[in-house]
Amino acid sequence: MTTLTTTAASPGMRRRAASFLHRHAGVRLSLLLSAPLAWLGLAYLGALAALLVTAFWSTDVFTGDVVKVFTWANFTDLVTGEVYRTVALRSLGVAAAVTLIDLVVAFPMAFAMAKLASPRAQRWLVIAVLTPLWASYLVKAYAWRVMLSSDGVLGWGYGLTATVVTLSYLWLPYMILPIYAGLERLPDSLLDAAGDLGARGWRTFRTVVWPLTFPAAVAGSIFTFSLSLGDYITVKIVGGKTQLIGNVVYDNIGAANNLPFAAAVATVPVVIMLVYLAAVRRTGALENL
Amino acid sequence: MNLSRTARTLLRAALVAGLAVIYVPLAVVLLNSFNSDRTFSWPPAGFTLRWWGAAWDSAGLRDALWTSVQAGLGATAIALVLGTMAAFAVQRYRFFGRETVSLVIVLPIALPGIVTGIALSNTFHTVLGLPLGLLTVIVGHATFCVVTVYNNVLARLRRMGLNLEEASADLGADTFTTFRLVTFPMMRSALLAGGLLAFALSFDEIIVTTFTAGAGVRTLPIWIFENLFRPNQAPVVNVVAAALILLSVIPIYLAQRLSGGDPQTR
């Protein structure tokens, strides 16, 4: 085999590589992990780290250049500035309101889908809830702009309420699907047992259904909360003059050309999300994602 | 179940009402695209196909669509390779930090888009000195698309088990042959489903795109957003929106076919 010409050498090479890989699981694993980890572990996490570092820099007032000297100034401005506190609290309020509205709307829908519909109907209902997820995000926000405009179908005008309504609409399927999956896993026999023991509808819900589907509802809330918290596009489309954290970040990069401050503001939703994730981890919600 | 008749009726009514709320806005956009009036007045003034023609003739729109397709295909290709590799590593091997790999892959989609967007643009721009353009858009999209392929391939590998691959090895096939003839064919539908989701995610993305696209690069969502506030472009935007609603049926149909009745979520 060793005397073969170069053209015939490649199958031999291939064979040897294959048997080498077969025998060395560690090499196989390193090869498999190399590219994904270089991309997401090094490049992406590195980019996030670089952003965090930038948050501690400042910009020169006259030239607009980034000054690479450590300072707490951005964070001090962020904490002491009343405007930013208001905007941060407003964003939190919007995220909480959207999550609550979605929960109240989604739960009965998911319950009817999982427990009242026939298996055949269930399949179609899941498709019906999924389909709007594929329709463009912008298109759906735009649809609400059309309906809310003063001469539109609803004609409520734009503002904070319009933002909450539109965001609730956008993320509703993300709440329905986990709750539906959670309810589907809940055996009907438990509901029957509660009934046999004398619990009526509301009591069964309070003592059996809700405690067992709570992790699924929290899983849904992670989507609705996180997606609302970082949004600035919907606010621009239907929010009128309303500002959320996302807009402050955006404006500081574009108009104000102050990347360090934008980076500092961007840590706010990240920290809120990390706290939220840490708080809900104990409920087992992360396994329901 | 011990639900009263009233409770059942109320729950069913809630489901019907909820679905109506989900679909009415989409229907309004569809209807409005045939509205002969320039503004979105209600009720529509009359029926016309003029705006569909205008949208078809718009060069800016066609360019944006082509850019979006290129970005989507590029990001999907990268996501397919990286997602499959990561899924194999996590599903088939036990190693230190295995849980962390999953977390890192989910992170780009769990963090607000604006954070990922400025982190990447900052790295391209200031750290690496790369000019922003289509390439940086593809890199940005690929970063958050990996998770869709990863999830689909991971689920498939979990169900597949190792029996067939071991049988193939016992029959004398080497690592590459086994992958080509046994593993890959069994994963094909999972790759298609994951790739489809990745493409859809990329096609619809606007926030990361805003920060990673240079001045000259305009994807379809960016084009829509730019023209959203221009009154004389409103009818054409309406047509694009309507077309996108109609087109969203295609991936749903494909995903249904691929998953054999097991609907895929994002």
From TrEMBL, chain A:
Keyword Glycosyltransferase: no
Lineage top rank: taxon: Bacteria
Primary localization: membrane
Assigned GO CC terms: plasma membrane
Domain ABC transmembrane type-1: 88-280
Keyword Cell membrane (UniProt): yes
Membrane-protein topology: Multi-pass membrane protein
Subcellular location(s) of the protein: Cell membrane
Pfam families hit by this protein: BPD_transp_1 (PF00528)
Keywords: Cell membrane, Membrane, Transmembrane, Transmembrane helix, Transport
TM annotation in the entry: 31-57, 92-112, 124-144, 156-177, 208-229, 259-279
PROSITE patterns: ABC_TM1
GO biological process: transmembrane transport
Family: Belongs to the binding-protein-dependent transport system permease family. CysTW subfamily.
Annotated PANTHER family: INNER MEMBRANE ABC TRANSPORTER PERMEASE PROTEIN YDCU-RELATED (PTHR42929:SF1), INNER MEMBRANE ABC TRANSPORTER PERMEASE PROTEIN YDCU-RELATED-RELATED (PTHR42929)
Protein name (record): ABC transporter permease
Protein source organism: Microbispora hainanensis
TrEMBL record, chain B:
Record InterPro entries: Bact_Polyamine_Transport, MetI-like, MetI-like_sf
GO annotations of cellular component type: plasma membrane
Keyword flag Oxidoreductase: no
SUPFAM superfamilies xref list: MetI-like
Pfam family, one: BPD_transp_1
UniProt record, GO biological process: transmembrane transport
Bilayer topology annotation: Multi-pass membrane protein
Family according to the record: Belongs to the binding-protein-dependent transport system permease family. CysTW subfamily.
Name of the protein: ABC transporter permease
Species annotation: Microbispora hainanensis
